[in-house]
Amino acid sequence: MTAPLRTGPTAPTECETTPIEDCFSDERPAGKVIGTRASGGATRLGTDVERQIAISRGALRFQPLTRPGWGRQGIAYGPFRRENGLVFAVSITNGHNTSQGTPNPDSFIKRIYRWGKGPNADPWPARALAWALGPRKKGTLRRILWWMRSTSRTFGMPDLNENLALGWFTTKAPADPPKDGCGFIMHAAEGENGELWARVGNRCLSAFRRLMNLQVQYVVVLRERGAVYYAAASQGAHGMAAFPMMRPVAIDPFNDDEILYPGIHQSALGQIGFRVDTRVHGVRILQLPELASPFGTAHAGDPLTGNGPIEDGDHPNPEWHILKGSIIRTGSGAVNGASDALAIADPGAISGLVHAMIDTGDAPTAAGLAWRVVDRDNYWLCRVSSDDCKLVRVTAGVETVVASDARHRLGANAEHSLQILDSHGQIGCYLNGDHLFDAWIEDDHLEGATGVGLWLGGNPVAAGLRMREFEAHPRAVPIPEAIRFDPPWSRFGGQTVYEDDFAGAQENLAEHVPQGGSVSWERTLGIGSVELDGHSGAKVQATVEEPFPNRAFYTLPWSDPDFADLEVAVTPPGTCRGQQHRCRVGLAFWQDKDNYLSISTWLDDIYGGASMSVFTKRWGFEELYDAVWTNVADKIVWGKEFRLRVAFDGDHFNIYIDDEPIMQRALTDLYPDDPPLRITRVGIAINWEWGTDTGSTINRFTARR
Length: 705
Prior knowledge:
By secondary structure, the protein is mainly beta. The chain folds into 4 domains: about 1-100 and about 160-290, Jelly Rolls, CATH 2.60.120; about 110-150, no CATH class; about 300-475, Sandwich (Jelly Rolls), CATH 2.60.120.560; about 495-705, Exo-inulinase, domain 1 (Jelly Rolls). The protein contains 6 helices and 53 strands. Strands 3, 5, 6, 9, 14, 15, 16, 17, 19 and 36 form a 10-stranded mixed β-sheet that branches. Strands 37, 38, 40, 41, 43, 49, 50, 51 and 53 form a 9-stranded antiparallel β-sheet that branches. Strands 4, 7, 8, 10, 11, 12, 13 and 18 form an 8-stranded antiparallel β-sheet that branches.
């Protein structure tokens, strides 16, 4: 059902008024999606310049572009007229959160050579034959075309570091989503993987970095002006609330575009010539009354308008308490009575997002937001003025300036958005969407305090400064049932089959029997040696001068072909960067010599961070540039033990480091027509990935089913 829209000659003539749901249950080949009907009957709009959008296995599939850029690949619905509480909810696994549109670092000839040679695990003739007999040759020409267009000589465009946009936009194929509408933007954060942006006014607010390559539910709720942004992922995911909760991550109080298209748009997939598809698992668009109420999911909200003292207002939520001075309501917002004033409320739970609007006159003075408030002598305060911005920690009545920013300040005769994000051990402060202090502040002082409030300084009455539209949201709120998607695949083994701490006399790992076991480890693939060191560890026999010789797997027989849950504890060699040490240890799932999966660490001096990489061999051929990885920053460092855990059912796999989920994918995300891999052996991988290991120590191995 649609409703007429009276507007300018270039605007659409009608808008959607009924809910839209798209669960992508209809199989569609690449290039045959735009213009078809969604599950609920709405038309799928958007653009597919290179004809690479498909639907398979119950999810939309965005495949990599040979020419990156916005306005070339995306799906949209609508249009809709802006309405308070109108929701766009998406469940999506982005291909790589660190995807970039940049030139390849090596020449085209060198890239072809490396592709042909592969990961040094098979001789050239065997690789060539396996490729010729394999089922995926048709994608090779497109891959080569991409590489030809991505050399330093042929790329011919600015670097593109924003790869995914989803939300509400003014067209069905926005040319520059970071400057359009109300949406989430994924920014490639190099070693820290993904940086989640949310558009606030004409800026993109950086909510947090280190967003791993996980299945995420994003929710963008329109208001009469602006929007509220939420995100959710699996338990333990950095920066996210855990299903079935969602985290409020930003408020946009500015955007007033009336006609909007909800959509998902991709500009780049993969990095430096690697590739993996994005999967959209579901879309829902509807109006939710519970999110249309004043301040939506806030547990404290007050327009701060009226007449008289703030504590005498007609608003039961929140109940204000004056800790300093006095604050008076006016028809256009709150002002202070004379000198500095602080009013707080206690919603009874920790606030993760606090926001207010500040309106200034000719000579703006100062205002701020307080949170983690215990009493008048213990709290945090973000204070902004016409001179600068300061982050202040008050302890026992003593103020400490934690950070200062002279580049951002209150302007005269303008409206300003001030908001605080406080979650996952990080504090972020934002003025009009700009990140203050150039950093997130990591400080757990008063972490459990639940008071929030507002501060007014100087003489705002004379200066014309007002605060209004105060709201504080919990760190997590329930996802409404109407927009709650199925959580990502998740499974853990409940029965331990093998457990090995490598205790015992010095011997080759291939001669060692795990504790309580009856069979010894086997070197299933490769050469080189791993030996028990006699001190509860199995050491990769390698040094900086003589690295490990290419790839090797040490495995044990496995009786459940459909599932394995493996965990290994590893200490990388060396003690710090600059010693030329490398770690390439991980886990292996083996079907046979032509079909296996390895997940291994990449830690190296040549890059400022670490990653976890997935290599897949199917049908006898390993497509090196289909390797999937996620950058993990400093979660893996030299000389410090980490635990890698992988659960795998032959298709889906979830990867964890020290219990934090860092990657969720399926083999059919890479190769939609492949059958599940059948697991016949499991074990430890020492991998090649542009270099090999120089002496890591394997401390423990556990296999569960």
